[in-house]
């Protein structure tokens, strides 16, 4: 399965969700790849820390090669880096990805990532982290994926934006990728004692939106995990937040 974690809004936990689900997948014994398409490089730093600065190749190299016409194509495995965690590899992002955006878009290269990922037979699961925008990179990820996971934080602005986001996903399904399914909406940084989040979630369910049952709580443990460059399944395996991610992974059936 190729799962894209996508939301056009920033600060909703895309990188945390993508990285922790990938780490759980790897911990379950599946050969897992995380592809970071966000110029902020949060997933890359989460897994590698400062080591990300020493990589010789990253996703920037892949897209640079895509712009050059090659009869034999591009070998995506050249851009994969080991994370040091068993079964988990990474294609790191690059803060200069924006420099290539216009050229890639002009040359209609949105299918190249799908071609590359479908050729990786050695992986059981692939997760894709995306930037907080609907642009060439997120469109490429949606075209490449078979499953779309949508992080959601419970405020009114996010609720209003969610409907436009789902329409964008539906257009990708119709125009570019009939295999893409919406795996569900992940309620992130949920505060169960607050009234507004509960009301918003109830409203989404009344509108028949695919809200998942596994909610992710707000916890300082996440920031600690980021700081140590170690996903929760390794940093704090018995913590409540880790168990919530495990429940989410199991609900998704990955």
Structure commentary:
The chain has 254 residues and is of the alpha/beta class. 44% of the residues lie in helices and 13% in strands. The protein has helices at residues 14-27, 42-48, 59-66, 98-106, 112-118, 136-144, 156-175, 195-206, 220-227, 232-235, 240-252; strands at 2-5, 32-36, 81-82, 88-91, 125-129, 147-152, 181-187. The protein has a seven-stranded mixed beta sheet, with helices on both faces. β6, α7 (156-175) and β7 form a beta-alpha-beta unit. α1 (14-27) packs across α2 (42-48), α1 (14-27) crosses α11 and α5 (112-118) packs parallel to α6 (136-144). The chain is globular, with a radius of gyration of 17 Å. The mean pLDDT is 92.
Brief summary:
With 254 residues, this protein is of the alpha/beta class.
State the main characteristics.
254 residues, alpha/beta, 7-stranded mixed beta sheet
The radius of gyration over CA amounts to: 17 Å
Strand order across the biggest sheet?
A: 3-4-2-5-1-6-7
Question: How far apart lie the N and C ends?
Answer: 8 Å
Structural class, by secondary structure, is alpha/beta
Q: Please count the beta strands (DSSP E, at least 2 residues each).
A: 7
Strand content: 5-15%
Fraction in helix: 40-55%
List low-confidence stretches.
none
Which word captures the global form?
A: globular
What is the number of helices? Answer: 11
Major β-sheet annotation: 7 strands, mixed
Q: Mean pLDDT, rounded to whole units?
A: 92
Task: Provide the succession of SSEs.
Answer: EHEHHEEHHEHEHEHHHH
């Amino acid at each position: 399965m190729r799962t894209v974690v996508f939301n056009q809004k920033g600060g909703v936990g895309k990188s945390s969700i993508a990285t922790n689900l990938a780490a759980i997948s790897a911990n379950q014994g599946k050969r897992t790849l995380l592809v970071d398409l966000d110029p902020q490089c949060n997933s890359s730093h989460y897994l590698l820390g400062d080591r990300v600065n020493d990589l010789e190749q990253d996703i920037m190299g892949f897209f640079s090669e895509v712009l050059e016409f090659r009869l034999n194509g591009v070998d995506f495995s050249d851009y994969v880096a080991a994370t040091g965690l068993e079964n988990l590899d990474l294609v790191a992002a690059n803060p200069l990805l924006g420099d290539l955006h216009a050229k890639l878009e002009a040359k209609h290269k949105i299918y190249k990532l799908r071609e590359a990922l479908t050729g990786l037979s050695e992986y059981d699961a692939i997760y894709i982290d995306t930037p907080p925008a609907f642009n060439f990179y997120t469109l490429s990820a949606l075209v490449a994926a078979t499953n779309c996971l949508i992080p959601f934080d419970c405020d009114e602005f996010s609720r209003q934006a969610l409907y436009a986001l789902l329409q964008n996903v539906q257009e990708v399904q119709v125009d570019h990728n009939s295999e893409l399914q919406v795996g569900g909406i992940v309620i992130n940084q949920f505060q169960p004692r607050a009234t507004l989040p509960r009301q918003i979630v109830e409203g989404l369910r009344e509108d028949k939106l695919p809200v998942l049952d596994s909610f992710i709580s707000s916890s300082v443990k996440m920031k600690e995990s980021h700081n140590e460059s170690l996903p929760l399944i390794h940093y704090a395996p018995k913590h409540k937040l880790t168990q919530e991610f495990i429940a989410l992974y199991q609900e998704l059936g990955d």
